[in-house]
Design brief:
It is a single chain. With 181 residues, the chain is an all-alpha fold. It has one domain (8-180): Tetracycline Repressor, domain 2 (Orthogonal Bundle). Helices cover 72% and strands 0% of the residues.
Amino acid sequence: MIHEPGSPRRAELLDSAYAYVVEHGLATLSLRPLAKATATSPRVLLYLFGSKDGLVAEILARARRTQLDLVAGLVADGRSRSLDEVVEQLWDWASVPERRGALKLFFTAYGLSLEGEPGPWAGFAEQSLAEWLPVLVDVQRGVPRAEATIRATRALALLRGLLLQLVAGGDSTVLRAALTC
């Protein structure tokens, strides 16, 4: 039996597990150190999330929600923004040193999902595109849908490519300038 998704304990442990994975990475995730760091036991984690894969899938969904909430907040605050403004604000949010772990988590899951192997990251890349592109298309009010889709695709690829380069050790000043040139 798995606790209801709305269980306060489950939500608390998901937040703690997400923070742990952001700090320590996904590739070497093991339940014992995670349980110790979150002041619980592997058995409780398995009870609440069904399996390690179930927990990882929830962590990845949490990571995508965090990003999408930011984008939704940018477009819902009533200010009219261009696609370029939204992309620049996304860069400014994502590129700060405190978010390097979250970026590494994103790119790790993205890469693993491209391998086509079953696991909690299966479909992560496709889901990420399916969630982000419509938001970036919708920002472009008055632009024909086909053109807005092409622009959104380019902007998202540029943003993600520059963020990947940042995580790999690129110069943030040069990368920020590349975003807007």
